[in-house]
Design a protein that fits this description.
heterodimer; A: mainly alpha; 0% strand; B: mainly alpha; MetI-like fold
Amino acid sequence: MQQLTATRWVLALYTALFLAFLYGPFVVMAILSFQQGPEGGPQFPIIEWSTFWYKHVLGFAPPSRVAPLPIGEALTRSLTLAFATMVVSTVLGTLTAQAFRRQFKGSGFVFYLVVLGMMVPGVLLGLGMALVADQMDIARTWWGTAFVLHVVYTYPFAFLVMLAIFNRFDKGVEEAAWALGVPPGRTFRKVTFPMIFPGVLSAMLFALTLSYDEFPRTLFTGGSEVTMPIAIYGTFAVEIHPNLFAFGVLTTLFSFSLLAVYGILMSASVRRANARASGIQEDVA
Amino acid sequence: MVATPDIAASETGAPMAPKPGFLSRNRHFLLLAPGVIWMVLFLIVPLVMMVYVSFWTQTTFAIKPDLTLKSWATFFGSETYFGALLRTLRIWLTVLFLTLLLGYPTALFIGQFVRNKTVQTVLLVACVIPFWTSFLIRVLAWRPMLGKEGAINIVLQKLGLITQPIEVLLFTELSVIIGMVQIYVVFMVGPIAFMLARIDESLIEAARDLGASSSTIFRKIIFPLSLPGVVVGAIFVSVMVLGEFATASALSGRKVNLLGNIIVTQVGSLKWAFAAVVGVVLTVVMAAVITGLLRIVNLRREL
């Protein structure tokens, strides 16, 4: 038993180190985002603490030799693309998962076809799509060729999430509604949708964050109008500046607020469900 | 509400029977069609096109649909390109091994030693949080960590462990491996922790009551039961590492070229046919790796 306690402590210590390894680069990045500007580079030591690079990212800094990040246009494109991808892949994922609630011939084939979308590396898919577009004389654009690939990537995630939700879902409730003469449309709105809502929300979150950060697929298919990840990728070849780090910190904060909204919606939905359940119990009593 | 269908029927004046019959008979088809059509058009067609184009003739800036094996011969005849294949395989195996080695103890701690569900979730979420920072920025963040004047060298010098900064940390194969391990290790931890948390505790108690030592319990019970998690994690890591190019180009100063990097460069210089050959090679490698991993355990039975 003593040996087991010792193992527990060793593993706990190891896990702490492991988390430090995961967070290390991010902490260093956050520190360096407060580097003095515009002369200070993306390395230690910190010449002087300043918020210059944050102003630079937001466009308030005086013009300098460091080109500003194309925040306005590229970020708008990325967010628009992520939003469209989210809507389409959640709808497709829900439809397909709904079909999987009953056994059907060829279900294995459809399952693997959909899951393949998240398995094939982005660079291959981007290459293939660019070839198809070139041969068919279709212009490569972020809202066309890149968008369809984003959906290919995120739709499998939405599908798997919805599949898991439908698997746990009590079909009897829906059947009861039908038996009581509630029309299918109303049953979906009043019975099915509230039950699958947490799943829909998770599928949407998956699709949004994956698409927003996607770049191997976009690289070959996005055309000349860049999305945010492609703009960042463009800086790989040239010198990097702490403005990228400031941008990284800002986007991380943005992601956390998104996550917080998700958490609030999720707990509200759970609370509503609980309240409704207890209300029904009172009615019965 | 019940009367609505009758009104609808009398309004259209058509018999009701065929329409709902058609809908319910083809309900499955209608639900499946959008997704399947999307995947065939935008997933299967591009991949087939890639295989087809790999046999096309490459001129200076264009490709012509005259079938040839020339691009294939170039790939396997060239030291650079064949070397990239070997390098990709070597880095993939190293990263796979290291993610398993570094990830397993953490998964073991979360899945077996933490019995409180809330703490388990908190620890797993803590592992996932870095994913909400852009992938590319996370890669770039390794540069000030590993550089000659980077955080690691500064700390080691302050501690008096080294006198000269270690230069092999950045812009080498080592930095690419470090970066990839940090980015992908979570995909190993998650599935393994999930499988470990599902192990029935009474099984381990029974073994202990029968006098089995901790190491025997690990070897005979815990590890075999976590194997499906290892395989799922290995599939995730393999798929992502084999298709990588960004980490390699950001942390190696373009010195380490993986198959993915070659595709990017070839597309950049409009050598489509050759890029397609590299793409097909990558697809074949990946298919072989996944099939091999699925041989280890029967996932459909285990999950």
